[in-house]
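Hi U.,

Before I forget, here's the chain from the pilot set. I'm dumping it here mostly so it's searchable later in email.
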Amino acid sequence: MKKRVVRAEEFEILDAAGHVRVRIGLSNDDSPFFSMLDPGGQVRARFGLSSDGSAGLAIGDDNGKVRATLGLSSDGSASLAFGDRNGKIRAKFGLASDASPTLGAHVEGEEVSHRYTLADQGSPTLGLYDRLGRVRIRLGLAAEGFPILRLLDAEGELRALVGLADDGSPLIQFMNERKQPTWTMR
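Structure:
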């Protein structure tokens, strides 16, 4: 059987009333997309690829606000996110590019975010981020299972820690910009 090919820059599928309900095409940067529209013409679901090969699915409400997304980035990270009625992402679950799982929640009306992550050594940590998305505080368990609070500067460098040492004794330590301890109390 001979294959038949139909070529076009964009396809639209219409309902019985003549409204566009499905659109398949290329965006301005030639990235492919597949959109499904409600009877009023509002995009409710869109699947697409970006120019770097990242894939994403966005699901919108009847007001056109994106309320849920599923994405796989070219760096290997993956995420599932949920937005509020204004379209602002409030909760996110995923895997970072290093395959560490993350769970994040954005505080209502603030730019501060809370992210739960699994550190490289496999211990759970809670990270608090500043308005620019930089981690500033990490609360978690050290590799040996002892609790530790890490304070980081604006560049993400460890500057102080409070926790328990390997022998279970309290530990407070300050570091200079070269990560060298300047003061320790045990």
